Amino acid sequence: MAAVCPISPVRPADSASNARQDCNLDPQSSPVNGLNGVEEEKDQPNRDPRGPSMYIPVSELAGAYLGDNIAAVMGIHPEYLHIFWKTQHQLLRMDGALSLPERHYVAIMAAARHQCIYLVSLHSSCFLQVGGDPRWLEGIQQAPIKLRVLNDLNKFLAHRPWMLAKEHIALLLRPCGGNSWSLAELIHAIVLLTHFHALSSFIMGCGIRTPQSQLSNSRPPSPVESNETLNSAEEAERVVAEMLKLNEEGEEATREEMETRFEKEKIESVMVTANGRITQCFFSPAIYRFLEHPEFGYIDFTRRGEQAPPTFRAHEFTWDCHGYSLMHGLYSEIGQLLDEKFQVSYNLTYHTIATHQGVDTSRLRRAIWNYIQCIYGIRYDDYDYGEVNHLLERSLKVYMKTVTCHPERVTHQLYKDFWRQFKHSEKVHLNFLLLEAKLQAALLYVLRAISSCKT
């Protein structure tokens, strides 16, 4: 399968014939671990000595992907890379309601919300290659009104999806001088927005380097090494011991206890911050021109001293029973691919943690997934949120929340501060879970709004 965008993200002057790249969807290298783990393939030739990631050594990556730094990092886990690229190929290249230039422009708008220069640059090049009007790249005000009216949807999906209501959907679908959206077009745009919001988090969470990185980058530098240290050997053993303990106890909390524990975790998530380990971010001009309301960002779902929005009760609108069915009816090809991608990321395991073999990691994976969706106000009634504090220590929570909600603030120090004994491939798998949990949370909110609008 050809790469989704055959042009180098930072060398738009290259000819298409020279810049065309193939995405290896079935790498011959051995898979390596992610909350899991087997042997890594090392000493790969023909790599940029700096590597595709600022955080992950070249020797830890699976193989060469012809300048595609995202694929080089995701390729640590070929099963996930395969379904990811199938999904993105469907969104950007196959039959769909939006034109090819519109698709890449929506990707630019989405990536700009999280200040992801990698994706803004990449899809600006792709936009031109597929015949997009160069004037649109001068800024959002030069784009057609039909695309500009996606601004509110874009910012809510990126930062505060719980604010979406059926009125936002109805406004976009209302006939308005040729600028209205059909439902098929809107669904295509929604999936593109949520896909690239989540991918921006993955890119920054893994420190993926923008090719030809002489481009300005608004991401903050890593602060001076912290004096906070963890006994890394004990950390992995603690996680394994906690999972064994939870498996052995087998005690079920009452419904009231589980609700209390969810509310406690939701409130405590407000205090999960990076404190002084982040620096102020500044928008680069390459990002700023594609933004309206750049000051709008994530705020905690539960804010101290304020009444929180209603909790999203997942059993009332689940992905499996409601979201998938609605998506399948409106955009069947992508609904199936999204469902498969959620399943692959959630179920991926090689039954190892760091140096420990034969470990059932299902509780850890579920704690990670449910914690991210808890941050967005989503509660699973059948889950005991008391497990979150047993399995996720503070530095891990700080990293997870920063990657998911403020990816532009991720630093190498935050990446190093958690799971110090764990392998890089395990941290990449963690970022898959963050990407997909964030994506699904946004989709649940917006699909619920669409469902309400249709009834």
TrEMBL record:
Keywords assigned? Cytoplasm, Oxidoreductase
The question of whether Cytoplasm is a record keyword is answered with yes
Question: Under the cellular component aspect of Gene Ontology, which terms does the record hold?
Answer: cytoplasm; nucleus
In the UniProt record, does the keyword Nucleotide-binding occur? no
Recorded hits in Pfam families, A to Z, give: PA26 (PF04636)
User: What biological processes does GO assign it?
Assistant: cellular response to L-leucine; cellular response to leucine starvation; negative regulation of TORC1 signaling; positive regulation of macroautophagy; regulation of response to reactive oxygen species
Q: Where is this region: Disordered?
A: 1-53, 212-232
Q: Where in the cell is it found?
A: Cytoplasm
One MF term in the entry's GO annotations: L-leucine binding
Q: Which InterPro entries match?
A: AhpD-like, Sestrin
> Which reactions is this enzyme annotated as catalysing?
a hydroperoxide + L-cysteinyl-[protein] = S-hydroxy-L-cysteinyl-[protein] + an alcohol
Q: Provide the primary localization.
A: cytoplasm
Question: What family, per the record?
Answer: Belongs to the sestrin family.
Q: What is this protein called?
A: LOC443672, partial
Which organism does this sequence originate in?
Pelobates cultripes
Q: What taxonomic ancestry is recorded?
A: Eukaryota, Metazoa, Chordata, Craniata, Vertebrata
